[in-house]
Structure formats: structure tokens, C-alpha cells
Amino acid sequence: MEHGPILAARSPAEGSVRRADTLAAILVQTQGDCPRDLVAAVEDAMAAGLAFDQTEGQIVLLEVLARVLEMADNRQGLGDALDVLAAMPAEAALAGFNTLVASSFPDGNVDIARLGDAALLVMAGLLASAGQIDDALAVLGTGAKSRPVEFLAKAHSVRGHMFGRDATTRALWTALSEGGTSPLDPRLYRHQARRLADAGDLAGALDALLTGACLPIEAADKDGFGDDFAVIAAVLHAIGHDDWLGQTARLRFCLAACPAIAAEATAALGNWPTGGAFDLYGPGLIAPVQQWFAAIALAPPPAYPLRHGKPHVDVV
Prior knowledge:
Blueprint: H1 12-29, H2 35-47, H3 55-72, H4 78-87, H5 90-104, H6 117-129, H7 133-145, H8 150-163, H9 186-198, H10 202-213, H11 225-238, H12 249-257, H13 259-270, H14 283-298, E1 306-307, E2 310-311
Antiparallel strand pairs: 1-2
């Protein structure tokens, strides 16, 4: 389907009629159920010369934003809303951001904390589509500070959708030197875990960390694993996957064999940085994860299953 009818008025009156007809045709697209129709409406408005700082363009933007906000307000519709925002031209996204700010704060007193969840997520998505990534992250981080932990899962959806899946973890890692290829080099497993996490495979990343943390090497050579465990634990908790914190046999064995890892993770979470991506993880999110690691560090669980209150090792 072609978009963007050209306005070629032969007289002022005829031009006004043509603009009105064009605007009406564009607005019809904003009433459909297909997210792509909303993007098409924006593209048609731009092709028709409807400036977003003028009345006709503002009308189109407001209709599109209203539909996107409806989608974002529904957990199941958030993905569709992000699809629309990701496909919007940068010029339209920036104009949409300015329109949303003006309509949300008519008194001119911009306060992110006053925004509803949907409006905040859409605002961040518009900034990202406009190429202002740092500002988008700042909006998400500022908004997360004053919202319940449940908001974090939505914020991560925005980060992953608008900035790429690797944005979930890449900005959180501490420095790590290159490792060798020896299967006994712990850095090999930390690098593998980071690559998996940056690709969105958090379960695989955790598995790689557990493999490295259980290597038969000195505990001092495992320094740094706690930092990586802390990052993955915080992200898993943020997106609602706490099941990994259960007492699985492998995780119990790992932390029991080297409780210093749990202590290091506890310290890392206690000194969680601020600014940038770190602001998506407020104290309300970090605290329970830190407490879990702290309990393990203080009283490591038995590495093996208990029988009659004593550790039992099956010999095959």
C-alpha cells in the first residue's frame, strides 16, 4: 500500500478542502487495530506536509499517542506499543515526545514522578526512537525510583525492545580482563556468561557462572564471580524470575563450596552504583536479592542432600 498523498492545491479554497480530506483519511488509520496502521498514519502525515508543530500534524500525533498509550497501559499490549514507537521516524518521535510532555504538564512544571506508568514508558520509547538514548535511560531510571518493583519488568521490556536485548546487562558489568582457553581458567566462564546474558540468555549465563564457580581451584582465583552473580540475580529479580533463588542442588553446592562468592555478591549489591542503567534498580529491588546472598554467606547450606539431618553423598 502506498502512503503519502501529495497535496497539490490549485487555489486556497481547494487546498483547504484537500488538506481536510487528507487529514480525515489519515485519522481513519489511527482507529484500526493494527499497530502498523499507526505508523502509516504518521508517515502519511509527513508525506502530506502536515507539520507536527501545526494544528493538523498535532491532531494526528495526539490520536496516535492516545492509541499507543492505551496499548502500553495493557501488559499484553506493551509489545505492540513498542513496535509502533520503534518504527516511528525520528522527527515524528521527537515531536511526539514534545507533544506528550506539553499535554502531561500543561503548567510547564515537568515532574517525571507524576506520570503514569504507560506515559513514562511511552515517553522513554519516543526519546529512544528520536535517537536520544541517554535521555530515554534517564527517564526510565528517574521514574523507577518512585515506583514499585513491578514497574521494573515493564521498564526492562522497553530497554530490551528499544535499545536491544543486550542493554539488559551490558552496562552493568565490572571490568574483566581477557581470559585464556584453559577449562580451568575462571575468566573463560565469566566471559561466556556475559556473552550469553548480553544475548538475552540469562539462564544460560547463570549455568556458565555455576560451572566456573565450581572449578577445583583456589577460592582466591574465583574473585569476581560474586560481582557477576549479583548482576544476573538483580536482572532476573527485576523481570520477575525469582525461581532461580530456590535451593537447587547445583546452586547449593556451588555456594556451599565457596561461600566467599556469596559474600562478594552481597558486597556488590550493597555498593550498587547509581546513574545510567543502574538507576533502574532501586533499593526496593536490590535489598531482597542482597539479603538472600547475605544469608548464604553467613550460614552456607549443606552442599549435599540431608539424610537424618546429615549430609549424604551417593557413591556410584
